[in-house]
User: Fold this.
Amino acid sequence: MPSPAVTDLLAALADGSVQVVDLTQPLSETTPVLVLPEPFANTPHLSRRPLSRFDDDGPAWAWDVLELGEHTGTHLDAPIHWITGRDGEDVGSIPPRRLVGPAVVVDHAAAVAADPGHLLTAEHLDAFEAEHGAIPDGAWVLYRTGWDARAQDEAAFINAGPEGPVTPGPDVGAARWLARHPGVVGFGVETVGIDAGAAGGFDPAFPVHNFLLGAGRYGLTSLAHLAALPATGALLVVAPLRLVEGTGSPSRVLAFVAR
Ligand code: MN
Assistant:
């Protein structure tokens, strides 16, 4: 028997009262990638090599070979990406139920427009819950900063300054808050990484990676179109590759939003 929950959702999609919003950035050779300082290894940009293009190597078909880092474009960070989560799940082991859940959107785009290094604090997150209610079980907390508007311009997206990258993100207290909150399954951002640009100098360094992945939660980066989501009430679907032993994966991220 068809479930009313599913048939109602399909009817809502058909009549437009629920819309699907694509939170994924386009993935191509020009997709910006993280830049680490010496002496650390860096991830390459995406590249592709054609196998055939309706030619002698494949007269009726076109296909390519890809090279890309696991952490390229809109992507998920699995717990094993960080040393604190190294005994946790790889991306292929994440239960699918954890990849579908409520989205809450914390919107600091105005603050970031005034200060690109703006930091999210535990007090901001407490204030969000005071205004919108407790973050529900299984939630993905999405941090809107307006940074997605920069994603087609690598220099503006990475925003390197003399002291390193200047991009928004959580401070140490907010990172701890997210990792300890019983409802939070994942934390998503519009920037190239889940930590602030200055987070290499925090104590601990890269606290979102440290605390969140160490607590078995997930990260999502380089999201787009968070402005199309309400603060609460959207349904998120995160679809990384089921990559065995993967530390992360490019992902399609879709939100179901009531019109
Ligand atoms: Mn990553």
Q: What stands out?
A: The radius of gyration is 19 Å. Helices lie at 4-15, 109-114, 122-132, 154-158, 172-180, 207-214. The mean pLDDT is 97. The first helix runs from residue 4 to 15.
